[in-house]
Inverse folding.
């Protein structure tokens, strides 16, 4: 099984390196095909590992030593267990699809080879992240996906907005990474190891405050990657990257790394339910916060990005409340339908010549029938309509909140579910129904390449069946490792009222979205100039506040530090002290005349004097010795 | 030959430099490459025959110089100095290989070979006076390189460089003389041997003064805030080769000396000064990073980034535990490789455009893709991405200091944030965006000569990031010996508490062993 583990892990790296060799050369379809093929290999290996794990085994290998000094010992160790194999399946499935899709999507881009190199490098980093058997190994993947995210957001590096967004994402993640490093330091100095099995086996012997701080710091790390408030602004800006990147990195995989971390570290979080509650509360807040911004946004990709943010909030509610398997389940289901939604958006963007404003689209269902069907399907799954994936995973989180008697969280999530349905179908209605507003702009849309649609098909199938078919086997497998808690509402009446009520609520929201946007789009100027609309439209002014409060002052302070403090104060003071000392002797005046050769002369003189002194002392010492004899 | 390997390593370049005077100027570069190549292979051979399991000094040689005062030519290496010596010979070779200077090449080669002697000498010296002589001698060639091949302000820069470091080292010399005197008082014998000094336990208040005297010499060399202002001038004016050697090797003399002298000689004082020095280190990290962010000249960004990284090294050194000190020694190597490479890279663009202002560039990624890739890799190494060489050192340094103070480390850890800010924004300014300047549209990508210098650095930066063991293990063994020595010598309760006793660290391992 080790062979399959290494194959699953390193195939993407091989693909990335080979594609990278052609990075600066002209486009060759070869790179796309090769990386996709290797991804498929990785996927097949993961499937084999999945069957192995489902049979009740796990694989744990230690490839070699990485860092060893003092008492610290960190190997390159990899583990395939119930949790990591789930993540591996999600990562390889979505990334294989996205690779094949990208062959079509990027076919006219001159950075084609470079793109596949970066994309495969990302998959490799993500695999390292989920397969590592220790915290620092996870951190390798953690930073690796950050790097690839930076490369891919800024892929079109001639665009100022893209490179700005790339840097923002990297730096904001680094803030969180510092907290994560501190968490790792705490674990090491308290337990002497960073291996998961050692840490989790002994975490309970630590004093409560220590565990709490470890939990908090690790979670702050998770907040960066998973873009939780207040470190969320980078995710929407990251939509500057090519759309397949948004599908893979900023929807299905990388942003869920934070959720994975909390799920993986469940023995730590189980010890500190208060921190868990705080995580759940933040998650619920983000779920709603992001959904409200999605309600009014006019950028197709940003709407989906906010939706991702909102769904990540759901996952954190589940993870925070101790329903780790539910969080992981929603992570999986969400990856499938959200990636599908993004890829559909990619088709639309291609057809619309990179137009992103859905208000300039409309009526595309005639010309892009399959994309319409796929995106509608993904939106239905996202809204959580029975029997699609979202119903099983998202409604389960609602049930968790209810069963755990967190009624406020439950209400927030319920309302958010309505919003989710509304903004999803607002988007579908604006793009695919109503008048063909794009004709005014002289755009004649066309459907994507057939093979791109075929590439999306697996995701569509998974978005439909993954909830229904996978839930039981997934539960049986993953609860070998995660706490097996069933969340059932025991009272049948309550259960049915809740389920049907939620479904009706969601369907009403969808109907309202269709009613409002599917026919003619009436823009209500009064609403749009209102305070709330403007607040939501400007993302609660948070990006602006960050810019004013952090970015600009930091730059100004930096300039001040250089031009005033460094060049004037520090340099002048040290120079001044030196000058005073040297001025005390008048003859040393010549030393400062700035003449290089006189400087050299001084040094040679100094050296000679030193030597003469040494010889003289020796001679004198010997003379004294002789006298003594 | 094995017994005299260190002497050969020290004096071979100097002898070759003397002979270099008679070499024809057209053959000077080839001559230089040959000599530096032989020297480099000798240093690799040294690594080969070095026994990594021995923590103490190896290949020691001794010859009396002024026996009345116990001044001996005493050299030897351990895991700490071994790799800095290899780094020095390596960078001399790389520097000569990728030399693009056309003015007075022969003088440059001879100067570089002399410089190589002084660098190897400093790191191999085990006698304080020998150390001091090489330390001071190293100033001369560097002064000459900046003064003769530098930019318009070269005289000011070189004088500033000289005065700062010379002042510091004079104070250090006074400290050394006092140290020898105390040794004489305690034992009745004069000695400048560092190894003999190690055995001397000084009263804590003596240690304070001596620590301060040594500190002045080392801190200016590092350079630590607020004595750092000579560095931007020196880098700003120095030719590429000067900056490369200065950043990669000469700055390491200061941090190396902290590990070699300050910690084992004055453990109580080192612990007493731990937090004041940590504050200086944190100022270096954050303040220098901010100043780097404000720069308009890309070379100054790299120059200030050096100060910021040296802050992390200082912090690791003063962590007083094996993790921290090993990390800081490793980071010395790492920073040498990475900053050396970055200065070489800046040199590449300077040779083409004769400017270092970032506003003059923009969009270079599309014109010079290979250059942008190598720069990108080195930038990411500088930012401390895992699996690059810097991460190992940075992580261990911070991890080590975390044992001493949570809050200081939290603040110092912002290094990973502020470092990303100035590096990424500099990269964005130079490489991203549209090509705005006409003269940038047809720049040639890196050529073979330049790749010859850069590729090995890229390989090392990744190799030692993925597999640091060959270097980290010998470092670790020698650092363990130093930490144990410090613990055994510690007198104040504070120092005894802060410096771990490796002989009985069973408690830490208990959990791992249980596993």
């Amino acid at each position: 099984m080790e062979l399959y583990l290494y194959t699953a892990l390193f195939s993407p790296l091989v693909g990335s390196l080979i594609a990278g060799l052609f990075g600066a050369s002209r486009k060759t379809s070869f790179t796309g095909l090769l990386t996709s093929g290797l991804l498929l290999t990785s996927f097949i290996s993961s499937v084999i590992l999945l069957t192995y794990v489902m049979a009740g085994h796990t694989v744990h290998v230690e490839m070699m030593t990485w860092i060893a000094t003092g008492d610290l010992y960190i190997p390159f160790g990899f583990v395939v267990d119930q949790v990591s194999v789930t993540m591996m399946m999600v990562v390889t499935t979505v990334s294989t699809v996205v690779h094949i899709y990208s062959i079509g999507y990027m076919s006219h881009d001159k950075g084609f080879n470079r793109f596949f190199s970066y994309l495969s490098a990302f998959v490799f980093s993500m695999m390292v992240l989920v397969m590592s058997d220790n915290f620092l190994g996870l951190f390798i993947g953690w930073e690796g996906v950050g790097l690839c995210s930076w490369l891919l957001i800024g892929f079109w590096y001639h665009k100022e907005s893209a490179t700005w967004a790339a840097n923002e994402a990297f730096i904001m993640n680094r803030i969180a990474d510092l907290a994560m490093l501190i968490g790792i330091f705490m674990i090491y100095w308290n337990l002497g190891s960073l291996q998961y099995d050692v840490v989790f086996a002994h975490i309970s012997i630590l004093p409560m405050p220590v565990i709490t701080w470890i939990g908090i710091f690790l979670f702050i790390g998770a907040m960066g990657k998973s873009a939780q408030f207040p470190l969320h602004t980078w995710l929407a800006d990251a939509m500057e990257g090519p759309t397949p990147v948004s599908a893979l990195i900023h929807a299905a995989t990388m942003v869920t790394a934070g959720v994975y971390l909390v799920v993986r570290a469940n023995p730590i979080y189980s010890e500190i339910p208060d921190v868990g509650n705080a995580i759940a509360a933040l998650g619920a807040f983000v779920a709603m916060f992001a959904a409200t911004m999605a309600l009014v946004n006019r950028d197709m990709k940003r709407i989906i990005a906010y939706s991702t943010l909102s769904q990540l909030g759901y996952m954190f509610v589940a993870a925070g409340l101790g329903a780790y398997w539910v969080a992981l389940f929603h992570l999986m289901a969400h990856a499938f339908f959200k990636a599908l939604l993004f890829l559909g958006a990619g088709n639309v963007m291609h057809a619309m010549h990179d137009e992103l404003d859905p208000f300039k689209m409309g009526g595309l269902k005639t010309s892009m029938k399959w994309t319409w069907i796929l995106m509608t399907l993904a939106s239905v799954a996202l809204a959580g309509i029975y029997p699609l994936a979202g119903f099983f995973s998202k409604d389960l989180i609602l049930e968790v909140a209810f069963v755990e008697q967190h009624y406020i969280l439950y209400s927030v999530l319920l309302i958010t579910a309505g919003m989710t349905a509304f903004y999803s179908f607002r988007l579908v209605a604006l793009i695919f129904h109503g008048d063909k507003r794009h004709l005014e702009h002289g755009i004649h849309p066309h459907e994507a390449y057939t093979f791109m649609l075929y590439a999306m098909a697996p995701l569509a199938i998974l978005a439909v069946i993954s909830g229904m078919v996978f839930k039981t086997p997934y539960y049986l497998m993953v609860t070998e490792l995660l706490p097996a808690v069933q969340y059932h509402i025991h009272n049948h009446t309550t259960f049915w009222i809740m389920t049907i009520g939620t479904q009706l609520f969601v369907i009403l929201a969808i109907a309202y979205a269709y009613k409002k946007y599917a026919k003619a789009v009436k823009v209500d100027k009064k609403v749009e100039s209102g305070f709330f609309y403007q607040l939501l439209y400007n993302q609660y002014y948070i990006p602006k506040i960050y810019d004013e409060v952090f970015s600009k002052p930091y730059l100004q302070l930096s300039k001040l530090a250089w031009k005033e403090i460094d060049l004037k104060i520090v340099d002048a003071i040290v120079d001044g002290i030196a000058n005073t000392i040297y001025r005390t002797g008048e003859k040393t005046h010549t030393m400062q005349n700035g003449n290089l050769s006189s400087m050299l002369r001084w040094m040679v003189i100094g050296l000679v004097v030193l030597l003469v002194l040494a010889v003289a002392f020796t001679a004198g010492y010997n003379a004294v010795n002789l006298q003594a004899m | 030959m094995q017994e005299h390997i260190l002497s050969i390593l020290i004096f071979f370049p100097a002898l070759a430099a003397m002979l270099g005077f008679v070499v024809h100027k057209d053959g000077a570069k080839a001559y230089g490459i040959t000599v530096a190549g032989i020297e480099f292979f000798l240093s690799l051979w040294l690594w080969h025959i070095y026994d990594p399991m021995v923590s103490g000094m190896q290949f020691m040689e001794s010859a009396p110089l002024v026996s009345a005062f116990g001044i001996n030519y005493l050299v030897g290496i351990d895991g700490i100095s071994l790799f800095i010596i290899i780094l020095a010979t390596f960078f001399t070779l790389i520097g000569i290989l990728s030399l693009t200077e056309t003015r007075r090449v022969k003088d440059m080669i001879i100067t570089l070979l002399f410089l190589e002697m002084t660098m190897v000498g400093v790191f191999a010296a085990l006698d304080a006076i020998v150390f001091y002589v090489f330390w001071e001698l190293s100033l001369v060639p560097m002064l000459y390189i900046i003064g003769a091949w530098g930019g318009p302000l070269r005289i000011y820069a070189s004088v500033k460089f000289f005065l700062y470091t010379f002042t510091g080292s004079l104070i250090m010399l006074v400290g050394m003389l006092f140290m020898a005197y105390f040794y004489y008082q305690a034992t009745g014998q004069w000695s400048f041997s560092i190894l003999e000094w190690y055995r001397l336990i000084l009263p804590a208040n003596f240690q304070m003064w001596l620590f301060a005297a040594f500190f002045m010499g080392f801190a200016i060399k590092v350079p630590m805030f607020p004595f750092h202002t000579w560095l931007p001038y020196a880098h700003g004016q120095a030719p590429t080769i000067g900056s490369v050697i200065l950043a990669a090797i000469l700055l390491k003399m200061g941090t190396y000396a902290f590990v070699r002298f300050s910690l084992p000689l004055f453990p109580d004082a080192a612990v007493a000064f731990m937090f004041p020095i940590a504050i200086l280190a944190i100022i270096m990290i954050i303040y220098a990073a901010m100043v780097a962010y404000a720069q308009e000249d890309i070379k100054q960004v790299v120059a200030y980034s050096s100060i910021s990284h040296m802050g992390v090294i200082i912090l690791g050194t003063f962590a007083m535990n094996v993790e921290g000190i090993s990390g800081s020694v490793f980071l010395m190597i790492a920073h040498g490789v990475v900053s050396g490479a970055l200065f070489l890279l800046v040199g590449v663009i300077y040779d083409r455009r004769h400017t270092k202002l970032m506003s003059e560039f923009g969009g270079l990624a599309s014109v010079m893709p290979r250059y942008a890739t190598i720069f990108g890799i080195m930038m990411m190494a500088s930012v401390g991405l895992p699996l690059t060489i810097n991460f190992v050192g940075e992580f261990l340094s911070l991890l080590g200091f975390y044992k001493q103070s949570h809050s200081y480390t939290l603040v110092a850890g912002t290094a990973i944030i502020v470092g990303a800010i100035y590096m990424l924004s500099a990269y964005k300014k130079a490489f991203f965006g549209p090509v705005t300047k006409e003269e940038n549209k047809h720049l040639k990508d890196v050529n073979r000569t330049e790749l010859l210098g850069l590729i090995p650095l890229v390989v090392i930066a990744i190799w030692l990031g993925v597999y640091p063991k060959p270097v980290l293990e010998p470092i670790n063994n020698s650092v363990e010996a130093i930490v144990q020595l410090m613990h055994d010598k510690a007198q104040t309760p504070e120092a005894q508490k802060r410096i771990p006793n490796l002989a009985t660290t069973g408690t830490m391992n208990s959990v791992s062993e249980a596993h």
Remarks:
- Residues 274-515 of chain B form one domain.
- Chain B touches chain A through 88 residues (CB under 8 Å).
- Residues 364 and 431 of chain B are 4 Å apart (CA to CA).
- The mean pLDDT of chain B is 91.
